[in-house]
Amino acid sequence: MRENYEAIILEDHAFSEQHNIEYALWQLHYKRIEEFRAYFSAASLSSTSANPSQGVKGPARPDRITKIRLQFKTFLSEATGFYHDLITKIRAKYGLPLGYFEDSENRIVMEKDGKKSAEMKKGLVACHRCLIYLGDLARYKGMYGEGDSKNREYTAASSYYLQAASLWPSSGNPHHQVFGSHASIVIFNGCMLYRFFYLCFMVFIFHFNESVFPACFVGFILWGYVGDYL
User: Fold this and answer.
1) Contact 134, 83 (CB under 8 A)
2) DSSP letter at 51?
């Protein structure tokens, strides 16, 4: 099924957009993510409910939790590789060079060529969405990681989200997903400096898309600061 969705995305953009194929593709991964999260929660709950003093052996052992964590990490890594490959294929299809995302001159050329601009915009938006999904995958790695790997994955997630936001600043609704997900990282890290950076970044984005700013700002204030006192 995943390969079929990928083929539609790459070969029939109109059909893909009409039927939300990119989102359906993500849902295949997200459904599996939710299954792993449920397994992990159940195993953790069973482990903590054991009562050794009464001679009751819990149904879940630490090695089971470790096994689920490893399987989950493996799945997330495979999905991450899939989306990286998909971005490469999208770039190839729409003629986006490897350095296009960072090269402002390419964007100027695109804006001058209407037909080329329309085609490249399709590729940019598709890559924008893939970067959001990559950020989500890295965020889940951080949530269920251990030790230093948690910070590494959250850093990677932040990088993906920022790339997505800078790649298509005026894309509208997808921005809300970027900032909503990014906000959860800010809250989890509990770093006031990082929160301040995030606020500054939102102010920067405001200059490109005013409709994005109010909801993101309110969410940031309520979750990022008030959350410290709840």
Assistant:
1) yes
2) B
